[in-house]
Specification:
Rossmann fold; seven-stranded parallel sheet; globular
């Protein structure tokens, strides 16, 4: 008996929220097709990797897109043990972008078994922000966009490291993950300002672990 994907094990109301996020951000854009997204939070531990996992699965299962997920959070990698798709670590890891020449055969390719492929972070022992302006990263992005419908990055917290800002300047937009009752209003305001100053569009906000309804004026104040 085939194993039920983790996304399909979620409560229907939760699955519906991920499907709504996908349909409102990725699918219907007419003027500009979204091909690459960075998910980020302000702090560690706000659930970004879990959101990335389920969002990618919702696209791969529901829309039948070929999706590539890249664990670009080299500070505290969160996707190594959470992938439900094809993990291409035997051929390629994110840390390979830091080291020498990468052969074409080593770059990630869609799996014949799953619409979802994952690139783990690998071993990175130094600051990774330099790689995003490197020729190797540009080559990786060109290759990934040719082979996959969507490339999703799980990144370092924007409130702690500059990596996520540099990475986000190379994608179509950002989705902020906010943990209810933890992320402070001033942190949201600061995150929005940093992204605005770098001309990086915010495609949406995910309120994670919500236990109560947040008034609409809060979102309008910070993201309207």
């Amino acid at each position: 008996m085939s194993k039920v994907p983790p996304f399909l094990q979620l409560p229907p109301v939760v699955r519906a929220q991920f499907e709504k996020l996908a349909s409102s951000i990725v699918i219907p854009r007419k003027k500009q097709t979204v091909r690459s997204i960075v998910f980020m939070s302000y702090n560690h531990g706000e659930g970004t990797s879990t959101i990335v996992k389920y969002f990618a699965e919702s696209l791969a299962l529901g829309q039948k897109h070929n999706v590539l997920v890249v664990d670009a959070n080299t500070r505290t990698p969160g996707l190594g043990q959470r992938s439900n798709g094809n993990e291409v670590k035997d051929n390629f890891s994110f840390s390979d972008l830091f080291t020498g020449q990468i052969e074409d055969w080593a770059l990630p390719k869609p799996s014949s078994d799953s619409n979802l492929s994952t690139v783990p972070s690998g071993d990175v022992a130094y600051h990774p922000s330099q790689v995003f302006d490197h020729e190797q990263f540009a080559r990786f992005m060109d290759s990934a966009k040719k082979l996959f419908h969507l490339v999703i990055f799980d990144s370092s917290p924007i409130g702690l490291y500059y990596d996520s800002i540099v990475l986000s300047s190379h994608v179509d937009g950002v989705i902020l993950v906010v943990q209810a009752e933890r992320t402070q209003p001033n942190e949201l305001k600061w995150a929005k300002q940093m992204l605005h100053d770098s001309d990086i569009p915010v495609l949406g906000v995910v309120l994670n672990r919500r236990r109560f309804r947040i008034p609409a004026f809060v979102y309008q104040k910070f993201f309207g």
